[in-house]
Amino acid sequence: MTPTRAVLLLRISYRTREDETDEPDGESERWSDRWRAEFSKGIGRQEEDGRAHAKRLGWTITKVIPEDDTSAFKRRKIALPDGTTGLRTVRPGFRAALDLLASGECDGLIADDLDRVARDPRDLEDLIDVVESRRPRIPVESVTGSLRLANDADITMARIMCAVANKSSRDTSRRVSRKHEELAAEGKPGGGGFRGYGYDRRNLEVVPEEAKIVREIAARVLGTWHDWTPEQWTAYETHGESLNSIADDLQAREVPTVTGAAWNARSVRSVVTKPRIAGLRAHRGEIAGTAVWPAILDTETWEQVCVRLSERGRHIDITLKRWLTDVLHCSQCGHGLTGKHGNAGEQYWCARNRGGCGKISIKAVPAEEEVERQMLDLLSLPDVLGRLRSIATHEATDAARAELVEDEAQLKQLAGMWARKEISFAEYGEARRIIERRVKESRALLTSAAPRVLRKLLAGDVREGWARLTPADKREVVLTVTAGYEVVPFIVGKPRRFDPDRLRPLDPQA
Predict the structure, then answer these.
(1) Distance CA 266, CA 296 (A)
(2) Residue 387 above 80 pLDDT?
(3) In angstroms, what is the C-alpha Rg of the chain?
(4) 279: phi > 0 → left, psi -120 to 50 → alpha, else beta; which?
(5) Is the pLDDT reported for residue 6 higher than 70?
(6) Are 476 and 444 in contact, with CB atoms under 8 Å apart?
């Protein structure tokens, strides 16, 4: 069988930083952007080679899935389908490829090499389950010839090579970790990444101009800086100056950062709280001992700064502000978007640290204003308003609750059957989709029947009620009457400003 709807899987993992002290002060996103630009060429080469190999085989590629900055070896603790937790690789792209093959939307898989597809035996076994779920087997090929699953011999060889690749990754991780432990014990720099602010490229010699700025920031935080105006002394002497105020002043004075990025509260905090400026060597978040480089701040002053900033953090308001978090979803990978503050202002972003792809973002305030407008227009319709009021006071939800409990129990039972290999991955996927659709419907009914937020909103004028809602209640209302929104990329040719057409309501049955 020659595939006519093959999927091309691409993957690359950027160089990792084993030691946090190698990370540029408060500018990890900028650091990642630099590596992303460099390593994106590798993804391009993989795609070029994969398409050329597909042409030689006579395959037709209809879907390309890039796993950018994704490790096939490192595992994270996640919630499993049966409700327990376990260590698994987090690879949305790989899982999407398996779903395409299991559903029949794609009929073949091609990749650059076996280790681009799997370095964890569990991932390989999931692929094997999908491949063997059809007769004849779903074709799988690689450019290097290291991955074929056409027969039992190919599968055995793939398992052996995956185990070897996994062992290689473990060996590398162990050696790198041991080397960093040795460097930390000796008080030497870890190497890699940008230089630390205040020190030269080797992180061994003090840069006088930057050291002066470090001492200035520390004094302004502690309330002991001598260059304040009398008015500033009155405002800052007791509690010190805010990080935002310091960042704005440094930016106005055009004081350069290590990478040239703008100063912000996060980078100012990072500059004066890293142990290295006190002549201390840190490893994995712990002080390992005295460093070989000179200190910029004495230990006592550094500790006072850390305590002062820690005390400020206790008074931070952590209540929900960005109320469209997980209401907006990425159109590229399906993950919920989360609120973030960056140099471009408040945004919703498909965060990489939550398993997202990092490719979709949208300005927060305009998006919230647009969703609020749509919600108020919808809730002002008489039939919608009447239906919601009826649901909010209706007591006949016991059946929905009972069905939800039964379906959730069935999902756990189904996951157990898959784990024990009593059913194939394709059977598991099909059954799970059917049950999850019922679960979504039951949860939507129960959510819409939540009396607290709906009664608060529907008590009198809807617009006045909306204005009284907290951000968390607004989020609950949106999820009560919609399935959320999908955020699509910018339309080519249109100005890159806020475009309400990028917000597309999700299908509640999807």
Answers:
(1) 20
(2) no
(3) 27
(4) left
(5) yes
(6) no
Percent helix, percent strand, percent coil in the chain, to nearest 5: 50, 15, 35
Cα gap 125→108, rounded to integer Å: 17
Please tell me the predicted confidence (pLDDT) of residue 187.
76
> CA-to-CA distance for 343 and 345, rounded, in angstroms?
5
Hey, what amino acid is at 114? L
For the chain, give the number of residues: 510
CA distances in angstroms from 384 to 212, 311, 376, 448, 503, listed in the order given: 63, 48, 11, 12, 21
What burial class does residue 467 get, using C-beta atoms within 10 Å of its C-beta: 0-12 exposed, 13-18 middle, 19+ buried?
exposed
CA distances from 26 to 194, 199, 266, 267 (A): 11, 16, 5, 4
Angle between helices 425-448 and 398-419 (to 10 degrees): 160
Contacts of range 391-398, beta carbons closer than 8 Å, 24 or more positions apart: 391/445, 391/448, 391/449, 391/454, 392/448, 392/449, 392/450, 392/451, 392/454, 392/455, 392/458, 393/451, 394/449, 397/445, 397/446, 397/449
User: Does residue 136 have a cis bond before it (omega within 30 degrees)?
Assistant: yes
Q: Looking at the predicted structure, is the pLDDT value of residue 490 above 60?
A: yes
Collapsed DSSP state (helix, strand, coil) of residue 484:
coil
d(C-alpha 37, C-alpha 116), whole Å: 19
Strand, coil or helix: what is 345?
Answer: strand
Question: CA distances (Å), 484 to each of 328, 367, 371, 502, in order?
Answer: 6, 13, 10, 13
Q: Kindly give, in sequence order, each residue whose CB lies less than 8 Å from that of residue 173, ignoring residues fewer than 6 positions away.
A: 73
Q: What is the pTM of this model?
A: 0.47
pLDDT over 70, % of the chain: 82
Placement of tokens 């239906």 in the chain: 387
d(CA 462, CA 453): 12
CB 30 within 8 A of CB 261: yes
All structural domains of the chain, each given as residue ranges with its CATH number in brackets, are 6-185 (3.40.50.1390), 208-313 (3.90.1750.20), 328-394+449-505 (no CATH)
Of residues 483 and 184, which shows the higher confidence score? 483
Cα–Cα dist 412/486, whole Å: 29
For residue 301, which amino acid is it? T
Compute the average pLDDT of residues 47-56: 94
How far apart are the C-alpha atoms of 108 and 101, rounded to whole Å? 7
Q: How confident is the model at residue 126 (pLDDT cuts 50, 70, 90)?
A: very high
Give the mean pLDDT of 428-456: 65
The 10s digit of each residue's pLDDT in 245-265 is 999 999 999 999 988 889 999
CB atoms within 10 A of CB 351: 18
Scored b (16 or more CB within 10 A) or e, 368-404 reads bebbbebbeeebeeeeeeeebeebbeeeebeebeeeb
